[in-house]
Design goal:
Structural class: alpha/beta
CATH superfamily of the largest domain: Medium-chain alcohol dehydrogenases, catalytic domain
Distance between the termini: 10 Å
CATH class of the largest domain: Alpha Beta
Helix content: 25-40%
Shape: globular
């Protein structure tokens, strides 16, 4: 079968390897149909690492995906051959202290698709997944929507962790796919007063048609002054979705006393700093968001019900052989790209 692997910094190569086979009674063989290019994939492509997670080449990334079941283990009952499925890339042990507390996303033995030292990614024709990680999708959900369920579930998880209410005013700093997922989840939860900052013009337009009250470029105008003009009491929750220090500083200024700062983006630096005096005087809570927990099926349900409308997120399509072009485009934020989708097979 064909698999696309990183072979060095900003280098990818198509390889031919033996197809995987079922090794346990709970294994499922899936033929991949679509894979989304995520910002974390780009970190590995451009720098070869995220923090202490360092790529050993060659290595396949990719964790947002959907496909069709080909074969199943003897004890599999959740899915059957021919089923169209969305893939949850986080393979938890369900036995450690974290899993027993319901924190499967911080499992001590977590294996995550496309994560160095854990599991190769899904940029391949066939993959093996545990039955628990596969979610059958109804006919009304496309392979694109099923693939987007992974980043959208992070947005829904962030919104749930922030405990927002329809009366709240919220800010979303950084409008990539995760920021868009947060906006769509907030809107699905009845929040109307949503404010977005983003430096890419095409994404600002997308934020506006997706329901943002105001979308502005922080390089061209002062986001704190502009948003404060609309919300004099400032914001209840701010979701920092771009991993930038300047966005953290803006978030602190934008939050009202007692507000919540949700750190969702993956920082490009090892340390973030906070204005201690402002944080203390406002009594701002900081909540880190680590992927998602318990929101994958709810995300699929919202998609099926039409309450999450994410079709506008997919802006570009590539074949498996064109992966490097896709990764270069996303890394450069060129041509107004939001989500590049890889069509496989």
């Amino acid at each position: 079968m064909k698999i696309m692997r990183l072979t060095g910094i900003r280098r990818m190569e198509m390889m031919e390897i033996d197809p995987p086979s079922l090794s346990t009674d709970s294994d499922v063989l899936v033929r991949m149909k679509t894979v989304g290019v995520c910002g974390s994939d780009i970190h590995y492509y451009v720098t070869g690492r995220i923090g202490t997670q360092i790529v050993e080449f060659p290595f396949a990334v990719g964790h947002e995906g959907a496909g069709v079941v080909v074969d199943i283990g003897a004890r599999v009952s959740r899915v059957k051959p021919g089923d169209r499925v969305a893939i949850d890339p986080a393979m938890s042990c369900y036995e450690c202290d974290q899993c027993l507390m319901g924190r499967h996303h911080t499992c001590r033995k977590l294996r995550f698709l496309g994560c160095p030292g854990q599991a190769e990614g899904c940029l391949s024709e066939l993959i093996i997944m545990p039955e628990r990680n596969l979610y059958p999708i109804p006919a009304c959900i496309s392979f694109d929507q099923a693939t987007l369920a992974e980043p959208l579930s992070i947005g829904l998880y962030a919104v749930r962790q922030s405990e927002i209410r329809p009366s709240h005013a919220v800010g979303i700093l950084g409008f990539g796919p995760i920021g868009m997922g947060v906006l769509l989840a907030a809107r699905a939860n009845g929040v109307d007063r949503t404010f977005v900052t983003e430096k890419i013009t095409a994404r600002l337009s997308l934020a506006e048609v997706s329901g943002a009250v105001l979308a502005l470029n922080p390089d061209r105008e002062d986001p704190v002054a502009r948003i404060a003009a609309s919300e004099p009491l400032l914001l209840d929750v701010v979701y920092e979705c771009c991993g930038q220090q300047e966005a953290i500083d803006q978030a602190v200024d934008l939050l009202k006393p007692g507000g919540r700062l949700m750190v969702v983006g993956i920082p490009e630096i090892e340390r973030l700093s906070f204005a201690a005096d402002k944080m203390r005087r406002k009594e701002i809570s900081i909540i880190n968001v680590r992927r998602q927990s318990g929101t994958f099926q709810p995300t699929l349900d919202l998609l099926a019900a039409g309450r999450l409308r994410a079709d506008r997120m997919v802006t570009h399509r590539f074949s498996l052989s064109e992966c490097q072009s896709a990764f270069e485009m996303v890394a450069a934020y060129s041509d107004g790209v939001m989500k590049a989708m890889i069509d496989i097979g």
